[in-house]
Amino acid sequence: MLGYPFGWMIAAGLFFLLVLAIALSPVVIRGRIKRMGEDDDAELSIRALLGLVNFHWQLPEMKFNGVAMELKRELTAENVASSGTDVGKSSVNLQSIMKSIDWTQALLQHTDDLLGWVKKTLGHVRVTEWKWVSAVGTGDAMWTAMLTGTVWSAKTTVIGVLSQLIQLETDPELTVQPVFQAAYFSTEGKFTAKVSFGYAIFAGIRLAVKMKHAAAEGVPRGVVGWQRILLRG
Q1: Residue 232 maps to a domain
Q2: pLDDT tens figures, 88-121
Q3: Phi then psi for 21, rounded to 5 degrees?
Q4: Residues 16-66: pLDDT tens digits?
Q5: Distance of alpha carbon 21 from alpha carbon 15, whole angstroms
Q6: Is there a contact between 193 and 125 (Cβ–Cβ < 8 Å)?
Q7: Which key words tag this protein in UniProt (predicted)?
Q8: CA dist 30 to 33, 139, 177, 192, 209, Å?
Q9: What domain range is 206 assigned to?
Q10: Which among 44, 60, 92 is the end of a domain?
Q11: Position 151 confidence tier, pLDDT thresholds 50, 70, 90
């Protein structure tokens, strides 16, 4: 058995390798959104620390109720210590939209260069899978062809904008299928993105620093200010 100081050096080396492996391990984010007719479905899952941490969010039901839209959502968080599921409903209307705009403006005022932080953080996100399949139709061949071209143009524009913000490690699979027989619309997209666990922690620390450096009128600084803003939403 190796004695002092070699034993401590080996232990320190193993600890460093463990920390490095954790820092380099990926946080895997998978998302899917689908709309077919009047049915909508959305899902998001986050997996970190080789599966020790799992987060799952699902929107299985979306219904329009007059001028408002009722959302049914399912939220599941699991880790090595606990697991649980929360199912609830919320309503999206003009009042809630205006409240969200006010909530966003408050966060921007309270955080120093929040948009810059978002842009820099997205620059470290690697997209390894991206599929976007749509089918459109109007019942008329000419209008269906025009609508198909418009959807193609919109998709390529979205891809062009996002490619400036994130790292695309795969060619997006885009499909637009024309349906000439009837009025029809469906779209489904899914993606897989990765970011290193170490950078995710670093980005969180940078955000905390920016929160401390910012001051919003009538709102305390730091975490307390963010808590008050979020509770207002």
Answers
A1: no
A2: 555 544 555 555 666 566 666 666 677 888 899 9
A3: -65, -40
A4: 888 888 888 999 999 999 887 667 788 899 999 888 888 888 865 544 444
A5: 10
A6: yes
A7: Membrane, Transmembrane, Transmembrane helix
A8: 11, 35, 25, 5, 28
A9: 112-213
A10: 92
A11: very high
Residue 48 belongs to a domain: yes
Angle at 124 between CA 121 and CA 126, to 5 degrees: 130
63 and 147 housed in the same domain = no
The tokens of 77 are what? 């968080």
Instruction: Show the tokens assigned to 3.
Output: 């004695």
Distance CA 116, CA 179 (A): 42
Residue 216 has pLDDT above 50, yes or no: no
* Domains identified in the chain, total number: 2
Among 92, 126, 147, which residue terminates a domain? 92
Unique residue bearing structure tokens 């050096």: 9
User: Do 40 and 86 sit in the same domain of this protein?
Assistant: yes
